[in-house]
Design brief:
The protein is α+β, with helices and mostly antiparallel strands. The chain is built from 30 helices and 31 strands.
Length: 1120
């Protein structure tokens, strides 16, 4: 439909070419094509009414034509009487008969009292027209009673191609014989000829339009506001059949126009709808704020004077980081107000908490750790200078640029080693040689020694200071993250801030009303807005979800079938089975096809009928109060230790009235966010806890497999080993997620912590320890491509470049969006390909931990890794932001658990590791397996003295003559160069060792204290609120959600609702909204009810078969 007004959000396919290409020519042509309104006023020479900005409003009363430009549609008869009417966001329009002249067609002129604001308008695509929403009109004149929304019924003019005119009819409009108006005799067309409607300075066509129900049409998003992927996808989908196979078919996706308006056909597969789903459902958006929007200061507050410097910095901050504006995150599919995508670069750090407290703390940790690594790198500049100087290794001539400033030693000498055995050097056989002297006497064994001495005291002290800096930095970071935690929590009000969870309700306490009455009775003045009672019906819920998934599979296998009743499916299955030949019957044992699927469906139906006749015990109760103070009051007054609640120790409750039903001790805590609740796993047993430890132990088996593969590749080419490490680190999270599916977790936070432990163990050991094991000891300070430090560089290079490039390219998901989605047969299938990359916060934390762990492990020998780590973390900061806002699948909003675990356990362990690794690094110099106590070769046979011609080693040392004398120092094999340390080396090890053990002791005490604190909570009740309680009521939180039981399925774009939604479908507390289907379509409780009816039974209302959710807004909200 070209140039029309659309009524439905994502309801029908349409030609939206203007969404791909809008330029000034289209705007100029649209402005030039409206002579009817402008000429009529110019002919009279009258001064039209204007608003405050000097913009004029023209009315063409009789024709009912909306001239190209910005127009307002209303309907009715304006004849006679003085009146005023108010249109949404337009201001008051007053009749001005006494001040305005009439044109030749007797049009009335009006003017707007105030300037037009930027909300609720419609936009035509072809001419880039903008139409104001005239749905609500309040008239003071009795003759205005026949006004209705002129947008409610629209059609396209026969001469739309000529002048771009569009016709609209009101409900009570006339049906005259007006040729150009299609009989619409009583239509008013207000042609607003202002420069710009938007306060924010947006030009025409940069804003979406609204339908007559007050909903935004997602297909009308402006191209400037789209992602590049969507722009490219829509452009290709319209022009090229190789991209969009639907162009080969004669498919009309435009809605039908019936007598009383637009009645859309059932939605068909549309790539434009799929891209709208991607941007409106998958990607995070926030409420639109015009660039020049200002909040006026209170009248009693003096506006402070701003200096030139403050003004400059403020302008920079506003340009780059959206100033100090508070961005309000919108729920997926929000269509009641304008939203825009978060910007991956300019979104300020304080707004990252919009995606969940855990996500905000992750980015704050990334930034803080980046700064810490930069400071540590700067502190190591003296070691850079020493390692690259003539004093250490003759200026490291011939060493690769990326290894300069490291402990790479390229100065070697052959030394006598009379007692050395070739078997001791079997893995490094080129470093030992037995030759005769030039007189033919011998042989004498010589070994290659590194002459570089890196273990000097001043170099070690620089690294010692770095360790202290990291220790202090970790402490400061802990304080900083606690501060950011409060900041993020206060910035974003969520259901968690108003809610409590009862973890041990009585089995039969399944009535939300009973729990509401209990809290409102015992806490006077506290209003319970929502209450959800979850029951332990996991088996039933899993069966219902599996049934839906199976039905979808069957429907996909029978595209031409419309009757999916069980009787018809059995008939089809029988026919398919009868048609099979012998070969097909054999194949059916491996892939049963329709008959096997129908059989599974019958079994599932019977199972659901049986489970639906049982009463399930209550597992958890979620209660949401209207204000945050009430929540905190309940947590303080009903606080009991977990062990007291388990033993039902009534003496632990101070007020007997707070015993539920007068006898039950409730264990109450603040719950996780609604999106983080795993409704199907709320009940966790001891057996399931044991499974968590078993699956975590299995990580070491996978680590052994990785070690074997990396060893093989390292033998072929060390570069392959570095990439194998990066690839295995990228693959393992998928394996860890598979392992976690065997576990049960009450919420996503706990699942993420266990996932973090698995991935962190694998990645840290796989990245640091494995490469250390497979690399020969003598290669530690060598600079060839197959040596240790070069391998460390390759790992960081892969992490900085390869991993981030692959993440940005998002090849897998782009393949789904651009290749699979256009070829999908149904809209649901298209949408499934637009869900984004699934990611876990645990995976991102372990990636950061791995990089830091790798840097602190090798920084004594390779100070440059500190800067490389900082660079990798800094790049990750922005790449992860981009992925979060442009490609990742929406994840549950997590709390502080992951950040708390990292700063309380992981970072202290990193500090201990850093201290002990430094002691190890300095004690192993010179990394050549050679030691000497100063003994000379005077004890050997004097006949072997003389000159020895020793061959060279490629890349290390040239062939040379070695003179052996009685005063030559004799060396012997030592495994780790620790037997005979130098004086400075011994002093350094003593100082560093004492510090390492001291730090280890202190940190261990702290960790033990933290563990004791957490264990203490089992026996001693404690509650520490985060920040001050906010005054904002729960019902006034724009993006509020509630604890509504739901279960996700990989086969569906939206989750299933595991509680009856009949009473809550209109409560506006869902986290998502399907623009095509009502919430009832996702209510799996109705599946069970219908199956019971089909089997001749009824769902017993006295049984607690499903979870229940109760919504009771406060009285003042009802009145509104």
């Amino acid at each position: 439909m070209n140039g029309g007004l659309h009524r439905n959000n994502l309801a029908a396919e349409e030609d939206t070419s203007a969404e791909i290409e809008m330029d000034e020519q289209s705007q100029q042509s649209s402005a030039a094509s409206s002579p009817a309104s402008s000429n009529s006023m110019n002919e009279t020479g009258s001064n039209n009414g204007t608003d405050d900005s000097g913009s004029s409003l023209d009315i063409d009363k009789n024709l009912g034509i909306i001239h190209p430009g910005k127009s307002l549609l209303v309907g009715g008869d304006f004849s006679g009487g003085d009146f005023s009417l108010r249109l949404p966001n337009l201001g008051d329009l007053h009749r001005t008969d006494s001040n305005a002249s009439r044109s030749t067609n007797d049009s009335q002129y009006y003017h707007s009292v105030r300037s037009i604001e930027s909300d609720e308008y419609y936009r035509s695509e072809d001419s880039d027209l903008s139409y104001f929403n005239a749905k609500q009109i309040l008239a003071t004149d009795s003759e205005m009673d026949n006004f209705r929304d002129a947008n409610e019924y629209d059609s396209q003019s026969e001469n739309a191609d000529e002048g771009g005119s569009i016709y609209a009819a009101s409900e009570y409009g006339g049906h005259g014989d007006n040729d150009s108006g299609l009989g619409l005799g009583s239509i008013e067309a207000f042609n607003y000829q202002g420069k710009d409607r938007s306060q924010g300075g947006n030009s025409q066509g940069e804003r979406p339009r609204w339908n007559n129900r007050g909903e935004i049409d997602f297909l009308t998003d402006a191209p400037k506001k789209m992602t590049y992927g969507r722009r490219i996808g829509i452009h290709l989908a319209k022009k090229y059949a190789w991209y969009n196979p639907q162009l080969k078919k004669d498919v009309t996706c435009a809605p039908e126009v019936e007598e009383r308006g637009v009645q859309p056909k059932p939605p068909k597969a549309s790539i434009q709808l799929a891209w709208a789903y991607f941007e409106r459902m998958t990607l995070p958006r926030h409420k639109y704020i015009p660039n020049n929007q200002r909040e006026p200061p209170p009248d009693d507050r003096e506006v402070p004077k701003v200096s030139s410097f403050d003004s400059l910095t403020s302008s920079i901050r506003k340009t780059l980081f959206k100033g100090d504006r508070d961005l309000q995150i919108a729920n997926p599919g929000e269509d009641s107000y304008e939203t825009v995508l978060y910007h991956p670069i300019t979104t300020p750090l304080k707004q990252m908490g919009d995606f969940g407290l855990g996500v905000g703390l992750y980015f704050a940790t990334l930034l803080a750790m980046t700064v810490l690594m930069v400071l540590a790198g700067l502190m190591n500049i003296p070691n850079f200078r020493y390692f690259g100087s003539e004093d250490y290794s003759d200026g490291q001539q011939g060493v690769s640029w990326f290894l300069k400033g490291s402990a790479v030693c390229n100065v070697h000498e052959w030394v006598p080693c009379p007692e050395c055995d070739a078997d001791e050097f079997k893995t490094i056989s080129d470093r030992i040689v037995s030759v005769n002297n030039t007189d033919g006497n011998g042989p004498m064994t010589f070994a290659l020694r590194n002459t570089c001495d890196g273990a000097i005291f001043r170099v070690g002290m620089v690294n010692f200071g770095t360790t202290i800096l990291v220790l202090v930095g970790v402490i400061v970071m802990r304080i900083y993250l606690k501060k950011k935690e409060v900041e993020f929590d206060l910035d974003e009000q969520t259901a968690q801030d108003y809610s409590i969870a009862v973890r041990n309700p009585p089995d039969d306490a399944v009535s939300p009303e009973e729990w509401r009455d209990f809290f409102m009775t015992n806490f006077h003045g506290s209003h319970v807005t929502c209450c959800t009672v979850a029951v332990d019906n996991d088996a039933l819920v899993y069966a219902l979800v599996a049934r839906r998934e199976l039905l979808k599979t069957i429907e996909g296998s029978l595209p031409d079938e419309h009757d999916f009743s069980i009787e018809n499916l059995k008939k089809i299955a029988g026919e398919r089975e009868a048609e099979r030949n012998s070969f097909q019957r054999v194949l059916a044992k491996f892939s049963g096809g329709i008959p096997a699927s129908v059989h599974k469906l019958v079994v599932l139906n019977d199972k659901i009928v049986d489970l639906s006749q049982q009463s399930w015990p209550a597992s958890t109760v979620f209660v949401t109060f209207e204000n945050e103070k009430a929540q905190r009051l309940v947590l303080e007054k009903m606080l009991v230790a977990q062990i007291d609640a388990k033993r039902q120790n009534q003496s632990a409750v101070e007020d007997p009235n707070l015993l539920f039903r007068g006898e039950h001790v409730c264990f109450i805590e603040e719950p996780a966010e609604p999106s983080a609740i795993r409704w199907q796993d709320l009940g966790v047993t001891k057996k399931e806890v044991a499974i968590k430890f078993l699956t975590t132990g299995f990580v070491f088996v996978l680590l052994a497999v990785s070690f074997f593969v990396i060893q093989l590749l390292h033998d072929v080419d060390p570069t392959f080993a570095a990439y194998a490490i990066s690839i295995s680190n990228a693959i393992f999270p998928t394996l860890a997620k598979t392992l976690s599916k065997c576990e049960k977790h009450a919420n996503e936070e706990r699942r993420e912590v266990w996932l973090y432990i698995k991935i962190a163990i694998f990645r840290c050991l796989n990245t640091v320890v494995v490469i250390l094991i497979i690399t020969p000891f003598t290669s530690t300070t060598l600079g060839n491509n197959d040596d240790l430090l070069a391998g460390v560089y390759n790992i960081f290079f892969a992490e900085i470049v390869t991993v981030n490039v692959l993440q940005l390219l998002d090849i897998g998901e782009n393949f789904k969006r651009h290749i699979l989605a256009p070829r999908a047969k149904t809209q649901d299938a298209m949408n499934l390909n637009m869900r984004g990359t699934e990611t876990f916060l645990a995976e991102r934390y372990t990636n950061m931990t791995k990089l830091v762990f790798l840097a602190i492990w090798y920084c004594p020998l390779y100070p440059g890794v500190l800067f490389m780590c900082a660079a990798a973390l800094f790049i990750n900061f922005f790449v992860d932001r981009f992925s979060l806002m442009r490609s990742w699948k929406p994840s549950p909003k997590l709390g502080r658990s992951m950040s708390t675990f990292t700063r309380d356990f992981v970072f202290p362990i990193i500090v201990i590791t850093m201290a002990f690794v430094a002691v190890r690094s300095w004690s192993y110099f010179t990394y050549d397996h050679l030691c000497s106590d100063g003994t000379t070769t005077n004890s050997v046979d004097s006949t072997i003295y003389g000159t020895y011609k020793i061959p060279g080693i490629d890349g290390m040392i040239d062939a040379l003559d070695v003179q052996l004398e009685s005063t030559s120092i004799a060396y012997e094999y030592c495994r780790r160069n620790t037997e005979f340390p130098t004086e400075q080396q011994e002093r350094l090890i003593d100082v560093y060792g004492a510090f390492a053990y001291t730090v280890a002791g202190i940190v261990s005490v702290v960790i033990i204290g933290v563990v004791v604190f957490y264990l203490k909570q089992l026996y001693v009740a404690s509650y520490n609120p985060c920040g001050e309680a906010q005054e904002k009521p729960y019902s006034e939180v724009e993006s509020r959600t509630a604890y509504i039981p739901q279960v996700k399925s990989q086969a569906f774009a939206f989750p299933f609702l595991a509680c009856p939604v009949a009473k809550i479908r209109d409560c506006d507390l869902f986290e998502w909204e399907d623009p095509h289907k009502p919430y009832d379509d996702y209510d799996i409780t109705e599946d069970a009810r219908q199956l019971l009816i089909d089997s001749g039974k009824q769902l017993d209302s006295s049984l607690a078969v499903f979870s229940q959710m109760f919504h009771c807004p406060p009285p003042e909200k009802d009145s509104k």
